[in-house]
Amino acid sequence: MKKLIITSAIALLSLTAMAQDRKVAVFDPAGNVDAHLKEIVREEISAIIVNAGGYTVLERQLINKVLEENRFQMGILFDDSQAAEMAKLMGANLVFVSNITPMGSNFYISCKLIEPTGRIDKQRTAQTQRGTNDLIGVVQGMAREMFGQNVSSGSSRQGSSVPLVAGLLAADGGNVYQAGRKLTPNEVRYLMASSEALQIYNNGQSQYKTGRIMQIAGALAFAAGGTLIVSSFNIDPESAEKESEQSRLYDKRDLWQATGTFIGGAGLGVGITGTVIKGKGRKKIDNAVNTYNSGSRAFKEFDFGFTGNGVGMVVRF
Prior knowledge:
The chain is of the alpha+beta class. Helix content is 54%, strand content 19%. The protein has two domains: 129 residues, Rossmann fold (3-Layer(aba) Sandwich), CATH 3.40.50; 119 residues, no CATH class. It contains nine helices and ten strands. The strands form three sheets. The chain has a five-stranded mixed β-sheet with strand order 2-1-3-4-5, with helices on both faces. Helix 2 runs parallel beside helix 5, helix 5 crosses helix 7 and helix 8 runs antiparallel to helix 9. The chain starts with a helix and ends with a strand.
């Protein structure tokens, strides 16, 4: 009877311990990047951990206190043993450490979850183009994956429940799809992080955006030139009473028409150039998708697949 009571008590204590949230200490990312960027990344990671369920993020004040008492500073690079020691001092079950390293036009990101024993529970690495939005999107995807959420960096905003996993991609009109769902650029970068396709995709995206901006600017300039030419016809020199005034109005109309023709012609040229650049960007995006797919399939098969815009070319390897 006593053995039964003791066994039941132990089981009850075990269930209670399992029901408690695991405590996670999130440190500022290490690396040679701006302090405000580190703070944004840390807050984004903390928010994802809290929303994952089953975890409690330790207060920053407690973390700072322990670091100060041990003469450490936020934002320095801990080795695994130091992180484990910090976990013990803070009473944390896990420590989340990260490092952001600038590499030319890219960021290299490393994230670790370390237990008080020094064991690395999980680790992820990725690479992304420099820029706050791109970096945050990739870090969000890494944190979601490490804490068992959908990897899609846009899932919370778009309401998608489809997890982002490595697999076949399809390109259509400058967009990239997976299983019929349109991916955000950050989602594509996350999938391509460990592939040579990433640089091709980033270059293609840059050209695609530049071309689209030039198209819009060219269309606006062409419209402005046309408006100026049309407006010139509203100038009626014949209605002027004096010859000098008529001559001035003729000159004004000629000037408006010449200016409108120049602006409209320049706009047309910019628009055409933008279309060419956008087309090159689209081809690079297609090439990036093909490069990515070739790294995840052993055989090659050309087929058509459904995308968000209809039917697009799909390359299976």
